[in-house]
Amino acid sequence: MDGADSEAIRGSGGLMIAIEIERALVMHGGSRFNFRKCLVVPNVSWGLHLHECDLLALTPAGYAHEVEIKISRSDLVQDTKKRHGHRSQKIKYLWFAGPDVLETDLLALAPEQAGIIIIHENEGSRWPQIVRKATSNKGAKKFTQDERYCLARLGTIRFWTRVSAAVDKTS
């Protein structure tokens, strides 16, 4: 995402921005990143000694899934230049998610170990579909209690920052 919340690409159902992809991933009941099942935090960039993650989902078992959200082909191409390659002992599974119109590009340009999630849209409703499963990082470690607390704290920071921004817009 790299701060491109306002950049959008026309999906099959219309314009789709990053926050709408986040919402489809965490609000859809059948999604593996549903916030009722996992601790899900957007824009994790500090506090865990980890590279920037568009969305970080921690399972009840303590394993992390990183989701890279892509809203344009250029965003996806830029990602191929990242030195860290989305590899970390803290990440069990890596996923790339984007609108259905990017499916071919996601399959071609996302790292080999990454799962691919396509966000479909119809009449204002959005839902995720896994089109390629992620490969498990066998060297990944469970989050410690301190790391879990840190992620939860980062989640509350994101929440209250977004609430504050929404209130400021209405004032």
Please give a quick description of this structure.
The chain has 171 residues and is α/β, with parallel strands linked by helices.
Sequence-ordered SSE layout with sheet pairings:
Layout: E1 9-11, E2 14-16, H1 18-27, E3 39-44, E4 53-58, E5 64-69, H2 73-79, E6 91-99, H3 103-109, E7 115-122, E8 125-132, H4 145-170
Parallel strand pairs: 5-6, 6-7
Antiparallel strand pairs: 1-2, 3-4, 4-5, 7-8
Major sheet = 6 strands, mixed
Could you tell me the number of beta strands?
8
From the spread of the alpha carbons, the general shape counts as: globular
* Residue share in helix: 25-40%
Account of the protein in words:
The structure is a single chain. The chain has one domain (9-170). The longest helix has 26 residues, at 145-170. Helix 3 links the parallel strand 6 and strand 7. A 6-stranded mixed sheet has the order 3-4-5-6-7-8, with helices on both faces. It has 4 helices and 8 strands; from the N terminus they run ββαβββαβαββα. It starts with 8 loop residues before the first strand and ends with a helix. The protein is an alpha/beta fold and 171 residues long.
